[in-house]
Amino acid sequence: MAKTISINPVTRIEGHARITLYTGDDGKVTNAEFHVNEFRGFEKFCEGRVYTEMPTITPRICGICPTSHALASVKACEDIQQVKIPYTGLLLRRLIELGQLVSSHALSFYHLSAPDMLLGFDSEPASRNILGIAAKYPEIGVKGIRLRKFGQEISERLTGKKIHLMGIVAGGMAYSLREEDRQALLGWIPEALDSCKTALELFKKFREENKQFVDSFANYPTLYMGTVTPDGTHEVYDGVIRMIDENGKVLQDFKAQDYLMYIAERSMDFSYLKFPYFKPLGIEKGHYRVGPLARLNVASRMATPLAQKEFEAYKAITGGWPNHGTFYYHYARLIELLGAVEQVRQILEDPKVTSTNVQSLARRNQNEGIGSCEAPRGTLFHHYKVDDTGMLTKVNLLIATGQNNLGMNRSVLEVAKAYVNGKDVKEGALNRVEAAIRCYDPCLSCSTHAIGSMPMVMEVYGPDGTLLSTVRKDA
Amino acid sequence: MDLLVGYGNCARRDDALGWELAKSLAQGLSRVDLRLTQQLGPELAAELGAYRRVLLADASAGGPPVLLRRLRSHAKGAVQATSHHTGPEVLLSLAESLFGARCELWVLTVRGESMEFGEGLSLAARQGLKAALKLARPLIEDAHA
After folding, report:
1. pTM (2 decimals)?
2. Inter-chain contacts counted by CB atoms under 8 A, chains A and B
3. Number of continuous H segments (helices) and E segments (strands) in chain B
4. Of A6 and A237, more confident
5. Helices A405-419 and A427-440, interaxial angle, to 10°?
6. What are the structural domains, with CATH classification, of chain B?
7. Residue of A nearest to B87 (CA)
8. B80 neighbourhood in chain A, CB within 8 Å
């Protein structure tokens, strides 16, 4: 008999979501939906605020990637001001963004996804988390906890706060880096590099022992988008936004200010998360992905030597072609993690990093600004329109996780088809479906900002699945 | 050296009790480190080993108006069903099993009346705060006698 299977909530992700699987009479999965059932609304309630408040307001969207919001926001403000920030201000922004990348990627791997790889997808759910890792593999638990702590400490030493930082302001930074903090952070580097290498070894070992699973896990071609320098080097703060097709051919390079020419969004009735797609190809063929897998598909090289060596080994898996395997998000994420620690060291060793010339001053010089950066999960855009007094009249936030919505839905379907039998549903099979979402390391609290009112439909089903009644509230 | 940790959400009325307790207790004491944070996380476990005594201060949604208790060591590898929230017991377990901490861990809670969005403590919370400070101050000052 056909039925629906609900995975609610999806565990070990940031935010709230559920998955519905639909099966046919034979128990095989026929369709899947990934529902994001929370609503934030920043796009609407920020209207009427002064635009320069946004780098302080928008970090509160998220506790995992507040820095990304602050940076995309402040770049939108600086687009309105047409201001150039000082060299040291730029260094410190890169430093703090890389610190967030370290913290977020360490959380994603060690805390959220490594439990499946180390303890097993079918292990006891109650201990399938960082605490279970700490109990069985204490040395790995220590590394995971301390690596995330290092990332947080970069933010805390520079701005005084681990999350929801303040101090990234239009024109640069509100704080400079003290020499004692620079030395303290440099002291972390050897341990952080070692923890990155441990994480890579763990993943490679898992892949070696589960090659067929890793290679076939939600493996399907899409387009990919990420930021690179003009010469194609992996980049997270600023550069060219590049869209490639499934064969690696560049479809479009564009700057953030032109994003609306290339990205459109569609709403669907089963989720508060919209579905972005590459506009020139339409929603059927314009399915693209963002984040670590996409960034390493888009980039020609990494910016640092150890990460570059890992990148070369990673690219060899697919003979240099784009990697479409969803599980390889983890591998790509760990290469980025290693590169981030290397770049943190480079910045801290820059003789100008402790300069106090960190901010330029300017006023509104135009009424529209767009900023972007690479959040840990993918490309993030903030788009502001202001009136002549600087009050916001329109806000559009295109969030990284939202751009993976088509990908997450497709991946859930692919994995469910491979592992779920509707006639005999095993917990481990459902955990594998959840793992498809974890590959993307979604930040769902970031991603749902509706414009206008919120329609709602409530359906009541009987125990046999019969629809008993429908209550509707239209927009 | 002691550590005072106040945790909670200061934008939710009485959930700011943790911060207010920790800040008030730390006033005037030079050999105390103060941490104010939204919630406890596993990373704090890495720090506990540097301290002789740690006091965690928080609001509670129920239970007695004021409670001061010492947590004892748990069995190695204590785990809970979710790592979304790291409670004091789990923090102590991680600190001891992973980081070799041997500190005294105390938990001070004051029952909150309102956890709605907003700033400012309720009357009941302010009264609880006074009673809690009176109860906990000897513990902290004793360490610095």
Report:
1. 0.89
2. 56
3. 4, 5
4. A237
5. 160
6. 2-135 (3.40.50.1450)
7. A131
8. 126, 131
